[in-house]
Write a structure and sequence with these properties.
The chain is α/β, with parallel strands linked by helices. The chain contains twelve helices and 14 strands. Helix 4 links the parallel strand 4 and strand 5.
């Protein structure tokens, strides 16, 4: 049987890396595009990833890297999360061109930024997408473009989940806002409020969910969307309590996240500006409805919270040896 090929754009990121690992575990050949492919190949020797020289902003590079591929994982973001408005759409256009040339299905990690207050608090795949933020509007435009491309024969799959956490997820609320990487956990800075639910997603579970959907290709629509339940923290205290258990710090000190600092620092620090824009996601409960996913898969891949946090905190260098 011929080995299937996947192109992963954003393989050095959290979800891209998790997808690359899961695909290889299933026997796929994984290609990854990078501007410094030789350096990546040397640094990740033995990983099994085939690094291709190129830039996700260059159509010809993406098309060439995707030749013969069955799927293209579009997990790439603008460098440093800057210039979203200028870069996000050109990058998806390049993936669409590559998918059209190769016949691949595009796999897109979705976000909850797409939704506005009219859809809260329970979000299903058909909920209206009327975002109130700039980033949300761009994500809606991106998915709308994929829906249009499906009418021309370019297939895509969007899997939406809560806030990511995992051993190699550096750009996340968990690693950038709550827990300090490389240090034992002595306190948690929590962005939300007690009593407000929040949805989390463990990266290996997200990757496994995507993989199981890919393996059910005949059951998928040309443009298809599924929501994950992940880990639902019903009152904003369960995640913190679990971190304390895993870190051996019951009764872990909880600090208020310094929201007041973001308006002051936003003009100078891009990531603070991005965090400030999505702060509304911590002020009200939003929950993705996974019933459609369950209808197709039967069950959702799910790692116990304490087990997921042990792997995450160990990967971040936060557990005492």
């Amino acid at each position: 049987m011929k080995q299937q090929i996947a192109l992963v754009l954003g393989a050095t990121g959290g979800i891209g890396g998790a997808m690359a690992k899961t695909l290889m575990q299933r026997g796929w050949q994984v290609r990854a595009l990078h501007r410094r492919a030789d350096q990546m190949a040397a640094a990740s020797g033995g990983s099994g990833i085939v690094w291709r020289q190129g830039d996700a902003m260059q159509e010809q590079d993406v098309v060439a890297a995707a030749a013969g591929a069955s799927i293209i994982v579009h997990a790439v973001n603008p460098p440093g999360y800057r210039n979203w408005a200028q870069l996000v759409m050109p990058m998806i256009e390049n993936s669409i061109a590559a998918a059209r040339a190769s016949g691949a299905r595009i796999i897109l990690p979705g976000t909850v930024y797409n939704y506005g207050a009219d859809a809260f608090p329970d979000l299903c795949e058909t909920s209206p997408q009327n975002p109130s933020t700039r980033k949300g509007a761009i994500r809606v435009q991106l998915e709308r473009r994929l829906r249009q491309a499906a009418q021309d024969g370019v297939r895509s799959l969007v899997v939406r989940a809560g806030d990511f956490f995992g051993p190699h997820m550096a750009n996340s609320w968990f690693a950038q806002g709550m827990v300090k990487p490389g240090r034992p956990v002595t306190a948690v800075s929590y962005p939300g409020q007690r009593g407000i639910g929040h949805q989390w997603a463990y990266l290996p579970d997200v990757a496994e969910t995507m993989m199981q959907l890919i393996e059910r290709e005949p059951s998928l629509a040309a443009f298809d969307t599924f929501h994950m339940n992940g880990h639902w923290d019903a009152d904003g205290t369960e995640m913190v309590a679990a971190i304390g258990r895993v870190a051996g710090q019951p009764g872990l000190k909880v600090k208020r996240f310094p929201w007041w600092l973001l308006p002051l620092a936003s003009p100078f620090v891009t990531v603070f500006r991005e965090l400030r824009e999505v702060s509304y996601l911590w002020r009200q409960p939003l929950r993705l409805d996974n019933r459609r996913l369950l209808q197709l898969l039967g069950s959702e891949p799910h790692t116990r919270l304490d087990e997921a946090l042990e792997a995450t905190l160990a990967g971040m260098g936060c557990l005492k040896k």
